[in-house]
Amino acid sequence: MKPERTKPKLAIALGATCSGCDYSLLDLGAGLLDVTDQVEIVYWPTGIDSKLEDLQAVPDRGVDLILFDGAVVNEDNLEMARLCRKKAKMLAAFGSCGAYGGIPGLINSGSPKKILLEVYQGLPTRSDKAEALNFEGEDALPKMLGQAYSLDQVVDVDVYLPGCPPPLKLVAGLLTDVLAGKAIPKGTFYASNRAVCYECKRVKENKSIDAIHRYHEIQPDPTRCLLEQGIVCLGPATRGGCDAVCCTQNQPCRGCMGALPHSEDSGAEMMSALASIMELNNENKEADYTGIFDGLNDPLGTFYTFTLPKSILGRRKVDQS
Amino acid sequence: MKRLVINPATRLEGHAKIAIIMDDKGEVQDALFQTVEFKGFESFCIGRNAEELPVITSRICGVCPWAHHMASVKATDALFSAPPPPTAQKVRELAYDAFMVHDHTAVFYALAAPDLLLDPDTPRAQRNILELVKRIGRDTGAKVLALRKAAADILTITGGRATHPIFGCPGGITRGLSQEDISAIRDRSRQLVELAELTNKVFQDGVASKKEFIDLFNTDAFVNRSYYASLVGKDGRISFLDGDVRVVKPDGSTYEEFKPASYMDHFEEASLPWTYMKFPYLKNVGWKGLQEGEDSGLYRVGPLARFNVAKGFTTPRAQEKFELFRETLGSPAHQTLAYQWARVIEILYAAERITELVDDPELGGKEIRSQLGKIGEGVGVVEAPRGLLVHHYRADERGVVTFVNLIVPSTHNNSGICLSVKKAAKHLIRGTEIPEPVFNRVEMLYRAYDPCLACGTHSLPGAMPLKFELYDSAGRLLGSESRGL
């Protein structure tokens, strides 16, 4: 009888997340059982009864792959991120929150004090006892860090699986590589290195635009490029790998797959792309374009829906000690 | 009684806390169930364009993203004064039914089934879905997962993907269905009916036909005679997306019925000194604390509430099961554990309803969006799998959001969960010890509600760590027990 090969160890850990990344793994259907047959899951609070001690008990670098979904917004998330870094041979930022801060990263649009007051007290459905918040002792609320961070802003990250949630075929790609024992270079993105536009079936005609439309205001031609119809679509500044699913649904790309390889800031990249197609054919160089962006209303939310913490705007150093 | 402040607590994994407070005579005086919701959504949604909220608020919860998406879409329909055309309504309903199957089956197999179908002495560490798959056989487990994937497929066909859909917009949907889409959905709808029948059979054989379970359901300590609130559709039948809110009294008669937009006139929230969580109650009845009966404004939402508020389903096979449910448990059914049964029957309704909608000629219509009107305020109410979900927005004249209020089902049910725990604890606890059966029973009770744990504590049903604490009347901690921490 052949000795059984040791199964690779897998853990899935959570930061500030909706759990959609790991919950969507159930949609692998029967394929999920093929995965669970081939790996040893040492820790996955969403799927199995896991104790934190199970993860703590593993020797350092004893877990072959840890998928971390969620942003880092409080001290507990930070502690979990550090623990995962210690225990993982390979640490993956799983989903847009881990990779870029994601939707919880929008919290960076407010001040820390405002966040705390509004999140915990300032709403009709919440108590108004602001002074009673407890940050000391065993049952204390974890201290907020004052803003949201992507995983790689607080610990070293090996691979990235962006998307909200990550497309299952990309997740399967990473798992297959790990199971095959393939060497995966640090910094690998399980996503395309080219823009969403390369996967989008809409036709581009290199037309300029003279007005910005919000996606719900017009019924765009389903065959033509959304951007060329005046809808701010982040496709040109965003990694593919998602099959341009939003564009297929007649909605603009909001950039959940993150910035392209050469770029650090997909929002800035997008603003530049947008500026370059404004009124390209207009002969009147003196024309006043200042009003043309008025329809945007919310540039921060539009250009940085999923990436604010990773943007040049939302970056702040965190104490690594 | 000394004022007790028990703080919302979350450790690394997040956990729920049940605090039990004794009076001077050593009797249970109150019980508190507690989870923390990390959100901030109500804060950072302000300043966004209103049409983006269905995209943003879906991320409140990766387990029930469609519930938040759909409540948000309905709120923006109203905010932009754009009632959706019939085709959009039907595609929305079809997708939402697929979501109900997707969510309810996950909850049943991950949460209820390990409690109900595994041996009662199965160690807690093995009470999970992977263990269940081992017990019911890998083939059956694989079959359930494969059939459930048909629901994910329908969600992908309609919304681009199963988790975090790209689907609704103010006044409609952004992509209509082609004939190929519809025939692909038709194939899968048959699989969903098969899944629903299989799941109902598992429940019927393993639980509903067994006297010991029905006796357990009927145990007085696990019965709570409360008000119930849910949406009702035409003819007073269960409706997940449309209709008015109806509230029934503990005797089953209608107490009030109102338009969702007026929710603030009917629901109010009480504060208790020992928790930050508020306790919603019926404004026109009044808050009497964690009390049952007609004089107490405590109400419950979710599958059991829908069963008690409405007079059944519009589809034949689900209606048959509904009648069996009422015959077995009475009407209204106040047995808290019956939430699980109602949930299983709803899977069948949702699957049957998809088979009806897929043959509706309007489903493939081309008119999928309506004209936008005046911009202002909008309330969107849906029946989430776990009960009534309210999204309420206001926007300025540009459509930029100025106000957001969200009431999630687990908040509506906070009082009910506390009441159930208190009553069970009163029955089971004497003195300062927490006997072992209390854990199992209390866990089964709160799991019946299936508090939205992914929202609250990032932990799926079946794996939620729990901490029990016992306090005396002076607020001194007498003892605590942890499970799964």
Question: What this model shows, in words?
Answer:
The complex is a heterodimer of chains A (321) and B (485). With 321 residues, chain A is of the alpha/beta class. In chain A, 24% of the residues lie in helices and 12% in strands. In chain A, the strands form 2 sheets. Chain A has a 6-stranded parallel sheet with strand order 2-1-3-5-7-8, with helices on both faces. In chain A, strands 4-6 form a two-stranded antiparallel sheet. Chain B is of the alpha+beta class and 485 residues long. Chain B is built from 15 helices and 15 strands. Chain B has helices at 41-44, 53-57, 65-79, 86-117, 129-136, 138-159, 179-208, 211-218, 303-309, 316-329, 339-357, 409-412, 414-428, 436-449, 453-456; strands at residues 16-22, 28-34, 168-169, 172-173, 227-232, 244-248, 254-258, 267-270, 279-282, 299-300, 377-384, 387-395, 401-407, 466-471, 477-483. Chains A and B meet through α1, α2, α4, α6 and α8 of A and α1, α5, α6 and β13 of B.
